[in-house]
Amino acid sequence: MNQYEKFDGVKKKLKGIVSALALAVSVSGVMSAGVQAAEEIDWPEKEELKFGFIKLTDMAPLAIAYEKGFFEDEGLYVTLEAQANWKVLLDRVIDGQLDGAHMLAGQPLGATIGFGTEAHIITAFSMDLNGNGITVSNDIWKEMEKHIPVEDGQPVHPIKADYLKPVVDSYREAGKPFNMGMVFPVSTHNYELRYWLAAGGIHPGYYAPHKGDTSGQIDAEALLSVTPPPQMPATMEAGTIYGYCVGEPWNQQAVFKGIGVPVITDYEIWKNNPEKVFGVSNVWAEKYPNTHLRVVKAMIRAAMWLDENNNANRPEAVKILSKPSYVGADEAVLANSMTGTFEYEKGDKRDVPDFNVFFRYNATYPYYSDAIWYLTQMRRWGQISESKPDSWYMDMAKKVYRPDIYAVAAKALIAEGKAKAADFPDFDSESGFKPPQSEFIDGVTYDGTKPNAYLESFGIGLKGDTVL
Amino acid sequence: MSKSASIVTFIGSKESSMGKTLLSHLQALLLPVIGLLLFLAVWNGVAKTIDTSLGQFPGPAQVWEQTLTLVSEHSAQREKADAFYARQEERNAARVAQDPTYEPKIREFTGAPTFFDQIWTSLYTVMIGFLIASLIAVPVGIVCGLSKSAYTAINPLIQLFKPVSPLAWLPLVTMVVSALYVSDDPMFSKSFVTSAFTVSLCCLWPTLINTAVGVSNIDKDLVNVSRVLRLKPLTHLSKIILPASIPMIFTGLRLSLGIGWMVLIAAEMLAQNPGLGKFVWDEFQNGSSDSLARIMVAVLTIGAIGFVLDRVMLMLQRMVSWDKNSVLR
After folding, report:
1. Which domains does chain B have, with CATH numbers?
2. pLDDT in tens, A216-242
3. Contacts of A46 in chain B (CB under 8 A)
4. N or C, where is chain B less crowded by C-beta within 10 Å?
5. Residues of A whose CB is below 8 A from B98
6. How far, in Å, CA of B12 to CA of B8, rounded?
């Protein structure tokens, strides 16, 4: 709600405009050619939109699409509003207060399968790859350092959870529960943290929703609980949790404040993993198909701008994001991770040019194999309580991830000359499944077409027909 | 001789009494200023010693700096709004040129509200909440004051709900508003309705209690006058009861407004109504090195506005009170 008393003044302006229009009509017949958006996509059904986001650096495509006028070019008048936490954001998309939102890649899936508030949410645009980190408190780091191999005076990366295991064991022997934080039960952070812990032999706990237990702490050696991202550094400082997995700027914030040490980024856990998506409710998308297409077009342009010329625009993006109405953190903290580096221990800054990827490597295409990975992890930890056939995974992915909508939007941009066909996958031959990926921290290969076989390949995790 | 002596003594005493008034005026002006300066000095000194993880605790200098920043951010946003409306007019003109059936709309600026917009939002939210509360509390208070049995019946409820914190009411109010306030094009946002109702729920108790006490303690002579004159009930109410209980009612209203203003800030933080409460919450979430100073600016603004609201109520009370000689503080 913007309380602008100018509205009365604007009404007067409008009267002036109507008379100017008569003149403009005769003149602008010539200039109309370049202004109408696409021959293929019709005018938007709904022009005033409200999108929600959480204060994380990867809401950048939304901020850039607004600030650079990409939304306005599509005839859309968008208001961006920060939300208190992921649950509030999802609920407000479901009940219609928000037209769409910056969502965790697992949220549309979790909502559609009924884990948490149930609603059919879809996504036609992946907002970014990578961008998360796992940070531990200074005390835990001191303990871990004793086990981590060192080369040239610096810890060898990637730091596996194997070096955390002795610390967790010592805490448990002393009777102290080892608490860690993540941002939401169906968040990428939850699954990445669990993946990393399990790869090191630490059990992160199971869910048993069919029994009413959604704490995710059954049989757990490390107890994971939910904290909203901006509150994570404060919660760790208070000693409630010993570590967390979260997006930026909250890992770098811990370094700047001197309260923790990031040990690993999700780029090292799974190279180029899908992170956030732009989610809308299916009901909304079916009611406003042109609007949805135009939103996706504007966001594709924003993503292209962010990765343009080898990240040349990132400093400008950092300036925009540091405004209090967007992410609000200090520019230096944001720049630490968005401009090609990442600081681990204080002073240990390493080159990680792909820490945030917005458009390269087809980052914006919603791949079915990405959706299925999240579904397999939901099954691995018990959020999906019983075993499902491979076909179920395929059907769910197709229901929630909509590359068909993405393709229409991308083709419109190509037709307008705002993008090149080479920037996108070949829509005629793209199946939606990435080839098998093996750049995971534990070396396990992921083939999206064989979800159940993938589940069998893990040491820790539910598999087969096991029901808790 | 004695006359001139008495004149001299008279002038002398007049001067000393003038001197006394001058001294007391000076005291009234200087003492608060000295108090304020001392406070600023102590604040500055203490702030330098506190180092939080968000940077040093803000002193008066940083708070002043952020006040100026907030003002410049406000002007910058207004400029952006002007540019937005200009672009909108162009776009509408272009679209109507191609599609004459299109009815151009002028939409409000979509940018984030500035600090001063948020102050205005908080003010009218508290006003609405306070008005709703007063509309309920004053009549109920009058009934309770007039009828002992009504008071005995309602009193347990008052005592039960009075101590409930706004933060406890908030989830209930949010759920009820979400369920009942459904429409495709709502006039008020849900967060506004939630905040206003929470303010009402918490600030109706002082008015209610004070009105009841005021009404029940009317001078018996006045009640007898009304009986003798056989006044109709409505005339009794408007001529005897209300004027006599104005002081107590207004005391209640002033207390209620003060409480309502405090409750509003808390309610806004959780209901996300775009006012000062949300400003404080967002700044805290941002965790930038300017955040604490900006929050201090908001704290001082909240205090200043609360003070002004109280003075406004006092002025209203003076206007409405029939006993112009009574001392009102």
Report:
1. 71-107 (no CATH), 114-320 (1.10.3720.10)
2. 899 999 999 998 888 888 899 899 999
3. none
4. C
5. 32, 35-36
6. 6
The per-type count for chain A, helices as H runs and strands as E runs, is 20, 16
pLDDT in tens, A341-351: 899 988 889 99
Tell me if ipTM is over 0.90: no
What is the structure's pLDDT at A29?
44
Topology (CATH) of A132-270: D-Maltodextrin-Binding Protein; domain 2 (3.40.190)
Element spanning B304, H or E: helix B291-320
Q: What is the pLDDT of residue A85?
A: 84
Q: How far apart are CA A415 and CA A358, in angstroms?
A: 22
Least Cα distance to B198 among B143, B275, B141 occurs for: B275
SS3 A444: coil
Q: Which two tokens stand for residue A16?
A: 């002036």
Residue A49 has pLDDT above 70, yes or no: yes
Q: Could you tell me where the DSSP H helices lie in A178-258?
A: 188-199, 232-237, 250-257
**Whether the Cβ atoms of residue A405 and residue A427 lie closer than 8 Å to each other:** no
Whole-angstrom Cα distance, residue B129 to residue B124? 9
CATH fold of the domain at A48-129+274-342+352-456: D-Maltodextrin-Binding Protein; domain 2 (3.40.190)
DSSP A265-330: EHHHHBTT-EEEEEEEEHHHHHH-HHHHHHHHHHHHHHHHHHHHHHHTTHHHHHHHHTSTTTT-S-
Q: Identify all chain B residues contacting A83, using CB atoms and an 8 Å cutoff.
A: 272
Measuring CA to CA, which residue among B211, B208, B215 is closest to residue B157?
B208
Average pLDDT over residues A245-260: 90
Cα separation, B202 vs B264, whole angstroms: 10
Can you give the pLDDT at residue A23? 47
Please state, in angstroms and as integers, the Cα–Cα distance from residue B234 to each residue in B221, B230, B242, B243, following that order: 19, 12, 11, 13
CA distance to A266, A422, B214, B242, B250, per residue, from B206 (Å): 55, 70, 12, 17, 10
Locate the domains of chain A by residue range: 48-129+274-342+352-456, 132-270
pLDDT at A244 over 50: yes
DSSP-derived 3-state class of residue A164: coil
A13 with B106: Cβ contact below 8 A: yes
B28: tokens are 């009234």
CB pairs under 8 A between A and B: 122
CA-nearest of A13, A100, A106, A96 to A53 is: A100
Whether B28 shows a pLDDT value over 50: the answer reads yes
Residue B181: list chain A partners with CB under 8 A. Answer: none
* Token pair 């000393």 in the structure block, residue: B16
Residues contacting residue B148 through CB under 8 Å, at least 6 positions apart: B216
Alpha-carbon distance A146 to B152, whole Å?
Answer: 71
pTM: 0.80
Q: How far is CA B301 from the centre of its chain?
A: 11
Give just the sign of the alpha carbon dihedral B102, A300, A95, A77. negative
Distance CA A406, CA A253 (A): 34
- Fold equal for A48-129+274-342+352-456 and A132-270: yes
Q: Which candidate in B89, B102, B107, B291 is best for mutational testing of the A interface (most A CBs within 10 A)?
A: B89
Q: Which of B88, B112, B120 sits opposite A325 (nearest CB)?
A: B112
Angle at A274 between CA A184 and CA A89, to 5 degrees: 35
Q: What is the mean pLDDT of chain A?
A: 88
CA angle (B282, B192, B141) in 5-degree steps: 120
By DSSP bridging, strand A179-182 and strand A243-247 are parallel
Contact between residue B145 and residue B252 where contact means Cβ atoms under 8 Å apart:
no
